[in-house]
Amino acid sequence: MGIIAIDFDVFQNFFSRRVIFVGNFTQWKCNRFQNAVTLNNRVVDGNNFPSGIHQAMYFDYEVKIPDSRHGITRKKIRGITYIYYAYDHKYSSDKHYTIPKNTTIGKCLDVSSETMYPNTNFLKYFPDAEIPVTQVKTDRSACLRIGAFIVIRKIIAEYHLDEMIGRLIGKDAGLFLDLAAYSIVTENNAGQYYPDYAYNHPLFTQGMKLYSDSKVSSFINSITRDQCIAFQNEWNSRHDHREKIYISYDSTNKNCQAGDLECVEIGHPKDDNGKPVLNYSIAYDHNNSEPLYYEEYPGSIVDVSQLQQMLLKAKGYGYRQAGFILDRGYFSKENIHFMDKNGYEFIIMMKGMKSLMRDLVLSVKGSFEEKREYSLRDYKVNGITVKHQLYPSDEKERYFHIYYNERKQTAERENVEEKIDRMSLFLREHQGMKLNLGNEFRRYFDLIFYHEGQDDEKFMYSRERYQVIDEEIAPCGYFVIITSEKMDAADALDLYKSRDASEKLFREDKTFLGNRTMRCQSNEALHAKIFIEFVALIIRNRIHFLLKEQMLKAHQKENYMTVPAAVRELEKIEIVRQTDGEYYRDYAVTATQKSILKAFGLSEINVGKQAVDINENLKSCNAKEA
Question: Comparing C-alpha atoms, which of 318, 320, 348 is closest to residue 249?
């Protein structure tokens, strides 16, 4: 059973998607080379679709249209009748009457039809409606890809995720884990493509049952916020809170087109394209290399102000003996004071405070940059540590770790020189003209004008302010990390660089789990998808860590020891159904696959046993169905 997927990002980003339209059931494609589609035998501009057409995903089964007494109205747009539901009413003080807030719940072929093709909004507002559950196609592929499934199942068992999810989700726990595995293997989170994955993979569902995309959608909408919170509580309760750990904390944002989501607001993303965004952050245990918990919060909230809420959440989870590794975006006097007050150590990159940083750099400049004893060879930098107060009112002395990188110095100095050269060229080209120059020019140049301030004022020439320019060049190549705890420059840099693990988590989330776009139209679905994605991150992060450990043990880097490459290679391990109805290994495990499996403590013998186990499970399920 397919989904009629109407996703605005399809048009904006020109992703390849197959979509079936209700109009004349015309199939169309929109890819990066084509921005128009055929609708009712007419060519329609992909960027100018009827209002509301991108608001939800439409299923290809029919349900009865709710009674008009429930606030149901119909509207015909370009030959298609859309069914609207008034989910709320708002009084207008200007018009002096109540205005309904409508959303589409389906579409039908003609205005008099009694049935419609529902969308995800219908499932949200009419949860008791009867819908098809199982896939029309009852059989599964004769060739099942088992390699990645075996690895994922081992990690799930290692973390007891199946037990935790089982207690929280109940009989559909297997589908939850399948959706997490689906996002890891296919690098996608679109529910309508899950049946394609399920068709040729072993499953965690009871009896390896195949479910339709409509079941996936209704299941996602059934997951509650309480279940999301309960999982994080239990996951963090399993950690040893007596152990001193450093937690790396970072955040990102996700674009969203849905207008009815509580957390989606206009914010301040790094790549601002004018769309509303959702902020999403993860706390990562540096010591044990595991994600700990996540936060989702409105897009309008800036990172620096959210940090204190995260610290309180860490205390609530029982992390008392902890330090935090933070990006410069969280640097503020209030946050430093808050961490001191709550007894948390911190490691943070210095941001702003140029005069203090310049003074610190100048106080040690020339004393460590060229000396071997201060060399940190792993990072190609030299480092030294000094004690100083962060603010004049600071009650404690902090440890300032000052680093010098020759390549960084060359690049940063060249940037300053190029900027001055561009400004100097501009001034030379405009000599003798009337110019209104800003403070940036006056900072670096003495500007000489003819009759300055008069009607016939003209710019004559300029002189570079060498002292100002030299002061800007002086700190080039230096950077400063601040720690509240006593440590040397090498340890501070090691800990700060461990933030790479949390940054990689976000890259994995967006790039390799398909979560750059959330593809959901309700608050329930949003919370559920982030919950599923967090569990998928836990599993994928463990895969990444074990592969990395194996490479370190082998003292060699192999291209196939990255997560995407390893998953692709493991997907080649298959079992094939023979004429007796049983599944057998297609061929022996290759040398490359053996190297990958070794990272997870698996061998060809384990693969053989699990292939037999999967076959026995399928036989048992088929016998029960018969």
Answer: 348
3 state SS of 357: helix
Q: For 195, what's the count of Cα atoms within 13 Å in the CB-facing half-sphere?
A: 19
Highest mean pLDDT among 249-263, 365-379, 516-530: 365-379
Give which of 457, 451, 465, 477 is closest to 423, Cα–Cα.
465
Q: Can you spell out the DSSP letters for 397-410?
A: EEEEEEEE-HHHHH
Which helix (H) or strand (E) segment holds residue 3: the answer is strand 3-4
Region 526-543 average pLDDT = 90
pLDDT digits (tens, 9 = 90+) for 430-486: 999 998 888 999 999 999 999 988 889 999 999 999 999 999 999 999 999 999 999
Instruction: Evaluate whether 453 touches 373 at the Cβ level (below 8 Å).
Output: no
Report the distance separating Cα 234 and Cα 151, nearest Å.
Answer: 23
Q: Residue 583's beta-bridge partner residues?
A: 577
Give the DSSP H or E segment for 578: none
Residue 437 DSSP SS3: coil
Cβ distance 440 to 459 under 8 Å? no
Question: Token pair for residue 265?
Answer: 């607001």
Could you give the CA distance from residue 112 to residue 114 in angstroms, rounded to a whole number? 7
Residue type, 378: D
Report whether 175 contacts 207 (CB < 8 A).
no
CA 40 to mean position of chain CA atoms: 37
